[in-house]
Design goal:
Helix 1 crosses helix 10. The protein folds into 2 domains: about 280 residues, Aminopeptidase (3-Layer(aba) Sandwich); about 130 residues, Aminopeptidase i, Domain 2 (Roll). The strands form 5 sheets. It has a 9-stranded mixed β-sheet with strand order 1-2-3-13-4-14-18-16-17, sandwiched between helices. The protein has a 3-stranded antiparallel β-sheet with strand order 5-6-9, with no helix packed on it. The protein is built from 10 helices and 20 strands. The radius of gyration is 23 Å and the shape is globular. The longest helix is centred in the middle third of the chain and has 16 residues. About 25% of the residues lie in helices and about 25% in strands.
Length: about 425
């Protein structure tokens, strides 16, 4: 049962190579469970116990279930996670011919990927394509997933760089451009990529007005280890938390509080987009929910005063080959349960109240828990936690499941932790 749940996660991630596909698959899941889509341009009419979701830019989604109690009194239980992962995006006019033979694509980095992990792996291509519509202001949207070993970034042989194992400095404009094919007498390099996209979508290439395409690892994730106790997969950061949160939302019972799952985009590049956490998107949806249920702005603020959120992003487990990189007394490990993330710098939103809520929830859920602090001499990362906490002025618990190889093309997690985090999220949505 536990392994099957982990296998289901791997399957979901395989079908979700980009944030756009992640949201599409979440949408399908929600729709099958009776959730109704709302459009931002429509007037909202919500009912008690109603189940709804709204999308933004095809890459962010907020789902919610109206509670049975007084919204002002009971508040909103929120879990937030992000749909995007670090990697590479394809630029326009991407074709580059080298030595009159090799065709490669011009790309740019997205977020803080571990670059060397992308070398010598078969890569697919997926994302969103914009087509000519009825008016310039209403282009047509198509998602694309060329799910085959289409591209590869070859390494330089050690014979030509004898110092490669002493440390490799990777230049994203020079070293990580993927190889697409070989030029021949019948090869038309001009607009090759656009024509490839057009063929895949069965459209006229002249109707393609733009695209957002990402590279991804073609090989599916898998369970590894002596007893298959590990999950080896790309995109765990942070679609693992999106999947677990949505699953918990759907499988939890009706409660007095309104439940909300926030799947936000562009966390890996700072959240400064219309569909990112540092926009008005979350607050706008909360305001519209409260208004549709008959409350005024004062009622919305009363609702927020009784609300709480979990910022669910992944946490660094102690690396068995680099134990010195971690705090000496707070040392989370794979399989040890959800991790509470704390930083006096404010890079994580957890305070003492949030910590108390988290530990109490873990006790009720009967799952083990751990704590993460950065070494005092190391600057760590951040999450959507501080952003949403400051924008909504509510308690936001910064936590995540433990992970090795964060931002690698393939990350490593424990099967046990998948079970633990779903139990924790279900408990959060059930009390």
């Amino acid at each position: 049962m536990v392994k099957q749940s982990a296998t289901d996660l791997i399957e979901f991630l395989y079908e979700s190579p980009t944030a756009f596909h992640s949201v599409l698959n979440v949408e399908k899941y929600l729709s099958s469970e009776g959730y109704m889509e709302l459009n931002e341009s429509d007037v909202w009419s919500l009912k008690a116990k109603g189940k709804y979701f709204v999308k933004k830019n095809d890459s962010a989604l907020i789902a919610f279930e109206i509670g049975t109690g007084d919204l002002k009194k009971e508040g909103i239980r929120m879990i937030g996670a992000h749909t995007d992962s670090p990697g590479f995006r394809v630029k326009s006019n991407a074709e580059m011919v080298v030595e009159g033979t090799y065709l490669k694509l011009n790309t740019e980095g997205y977020g803080g990927a571990i670059l060397y992990t992308w070398f010598d792996r078969p890569l697919g291509l997926a994302g969103k394509v914009m087509l000519k519509g009825e008016t310039p202001f209403a282009p047509c949207t198509k998602l694309i997933n060329i799910n085959k070993p289409l591209l590869i970034i070859p390494s330089l042989a050690i014979h030509m760089n004898r110092a490669v194992n002493e440390g490799l400095e990777v230049n994203k404009q020079k070293h990580t451009l993927p190889l697409l094919g070989l030029v021949n007498d019948y090869f038309e390099k001009d607009n090759y990529l656009v024509k490839l996209i057009a063929d895949e979508l069965s459209v006229d290439y002249r109707d393609i007005l733009g695209f957002e395409l990402s590279l991804y690892e073609y090989e599916k994730g898998c369970l590894v280890g002596v007893e298959e106790e590990f999950i080896s997969c790309g995109g765990l950061d942070d679609m693992w938390m999106v999947y677990s949160g949505v699953k918990a939302l759907i499988e939890s019972p009706e409660i007095k509080a309104t439940k909300m799952m926030i799947c936000i985009d562009n966390e890996e590049i700072g959240s400064l987009t219309a569909q990112g956490a540092n926009s008005a998107f979350i607050l706008n949806i909360i305001e519209r929910v409260t208004m549709a249920l008959g409350l005024n702005r004062e009622g919305m603020y009363q609702t927020l005063a009784n609300s709480v959120m979990i910022s669910a992003d992944l946490a660094h487990a102690v690396h068995p080959n680099y134990p010195e990189k971690h705090d000496p007394t707070n040392r989370p490990v794979l399989g040890g349960g959800p991790v509470l993330k704390i930083a006096s710098s404010g890079s994580y939103s957890t305070d003492s109240r949030c910590a108390a809520i988290f530990e109490s929830l873990c006790q009720v859920a009967e799952v083990p828990y751990q704590k993460f602090y950065n070494r005092s001499d190391v600057r760590g990362g951040t999450t959507i936690g501080p952003i949403t906490s400051s924008n909504l002025t509510i308690p936001v618990i910064d936590m995540g499941s433990p992970l090795l190889g964060m931002h690698s093309i393939r990350e490593l997690a424990a099967v046990k932790d998948h079970e633990y985090v779903i139990k924790l999220f279900k408990t959060f949505y059930s009390l």
